[in-house]
Amino acid sequence: MGDGGGGLKSIRRWNAKEDEEALYLKIDMPGLGKEDVKVSIVENTLIIKGEKKKAIEGGDDDDDDESVRKWYSSIFDLHPNLFKVKQVKAEMKNGVLRVSIPKVKEEERKDIFKVNVQ
C-alpha cells in the first residue's frame, strides 16, 4: 500500500463505511497532493494510484543525490448492479483521499425481478 522510501510496507491505509446512499472510502496518502493522485474505473474496477518522487541530498557529496518515492495503490471491485460507477466522486485534501461511490437503489436495479405473491 504505502512506501516510505524504504521497503514496501503492508500497512492498511484505507477504511470504508457505507449507508443507504453510498459507499465511502477514506485513503491516507500522506505527502501527496491532488496532482499526485489518479482515480479511474476500468471495467467496474476502481483503481486508485498515487505517486510522488522527491529529490533529497545524499551525504557530503552533492553528486550523490537520491530520491524518495511515495507510492500508494488500491483496487476495489464495484458490481455495476450495486453501484453507480459513473457518478463516483473523489476529493484529495491534507493527504487524505475521500471517494464517494453512490449505490443503485433497489427500485432502480435491473437485476431484481419482483414476483407477485398471490
TrEMBL record:
<keyword id="KW-0809">Transit peptide</keyword>
<comment type="similarity">
    <text>Belongs to the small heat shock protein (HSP20) family.</text>
</comment>
<dbReference type="InterPro" id="IPR002068">
    <property type="entry name" value="A-crystallin/Hsp20_dom"/>
</dbReference>
<keyword id="KW-0346">Stress response</keyword>
<dbReference type="InterPro" id="IPR044656">
    <property type="entry name" value="HSP14.7/HSP23.5/HSP23.6-like"/>
</dbReference>
<dbReference type="Pfam" id="PF00011">
    <property type="entry name" value="HSP20"/>
</dbReference>
<protein>
    <submittedName>
        <fullName>Alpha crystallin/Hsp20 domain</fullName>
    </submittedName>
</protein>
<dbReference type="InterPro" id="IPR008978">
    <property type="entry name" value="HSP20-like_chaperone"/>
</dbReference>
<feature type="domain" description="SHSP">
    <location>
        <begin position="5"/>
        <end position="118"/>
    </location>
</feature>
